Amino acid sequence: MAAANPLHRQLESTKLNETITRYRPSKAFSNFAQGAEVTSLDFDDTGEFCIATGDDETLQLYDCKLGKHSKTLYSKKYGCHLARFTHLQSNVIYASTKENDTIRYLSLHDNSYIRYFKGHKRSVTSLEVSPVDDQFISCSNDDTVRVWDLRSHNCAGLLNITAPSLAAFDPSGIIFAVAAQSASAILLYDLRNYDKQPFTTFTLTDDSFLSQYSYPPRMPAWSKLEFSNDGKHMLVGTRGHAHYVVDSFAGDTAQFVYRAKRPNGPTSPKKLETSGDVCFTPDARYLVSGQGERGVIVWDSWMQADEKKTLKPFIELAENTKSMASVVSFNPKMNLFATAHKDVTFWLPEQHAPDAPSPSAAPTSAR
């Protein structure tokens, strides 16, 4: 898997390290219907726009440069979830939540459909666009993973995997991962030979840690699968008391556990699972996660984990903000991240916020 230039990564990481502790809620947008909850967030490649879907069957577009709401788009007939920008900031794909399980390709400019992607027989649980071209992957409760190309309505490839709840591309766009929670496994495929068996399978178990929360130990529901931008690690976000960071090359032999105070999924059984409340920062160093109504928590992956492979929080941001963060996404280009629950909130560094933790809490090693 291709890795980012080490010097570029170091410079970007140093820049973010100077500001990560200073993020505060900057602006909140209340564009969804009363009582509705946000189910997904995504930024376009340039970082200029953010798209959010809600269970009120609307898509909300935000201008990150101007810090304002741009437009509301309705999908009342089909519902909407997991909206993802293509490589054109004017176009998105999203999953339907009612009537059928078709994936829809939408022009935000005139709110018209460009193409439909039909094939899934049950609800789509994951939708990810390749970082380098027009291919994308979808997972569904029909026990299939499908590979598509935006230029054709025909499915380009099909994998039969039991409960393939999540999928993610690595930064090169050559490798993709599928998370099958029923097997506690992450399967890695080469996109050029995806019809073959996975070239690597990582089994994700840690009974010693999980037994602290349940007996017998049970893996919490997985909610997020993501590669870091340097391709070295994969993040498995969960609905329980931990998130997992897995070495993309060594698998569970280099597994780290991150603990958080957090809610356990949607507030109602009828609510959709969100696109995840944890993510990597663009420099691949930090993890940012919601923790219920206690604001946002940050971990520094360069710090040393303890003997139980647990990493202590680096900092808690705006602990008493009282704003639930059930969805979290970091802007790929701008110094901004977004959280959402019933509102969408943009977080920006505050100039006069407290300084970073003392050097004693600084990273002890860099992997």
Automatic annotation (TrEMBL):
This protein's record includes keyword Nucleus: yes
Residues in WD repeats: 117-158
Q: Name one Pfam family in it.
A: WD40
What the entry lists under Gene3D superfamilies is as follows: YVTN repeat-like/Quinoprotein amine dehydrogenase
| Cell compartment(s), UniProt | Nucleus
Where does the source fall among the domains of life? Eukaryota
GO MF annotation list: chromatin binding
Its BP terms in the Gene Ontology are: RNA metabolic process
Chief place of localization: nucleus
Q: Matching InterPro entries, A to Z?
A: Swd2/WDR82, WD40/YVTN_repeat-like_dom_sf, WD40_repeat_dom_sf, WD40_rpt
State the family named in the UniProt similarity comment for this chain.
Belongs to the WD repeat SWD2 family.
Please report the name of this protein according to its UniProt entry: WD40-repeat-containing domain protein
Q: Which organism is it from?
A: Tuber borchii (White truffle)
Classification of source organism:
Eukaryota, Fungi, Dikarya, Ascomycota, Pezizomycotina
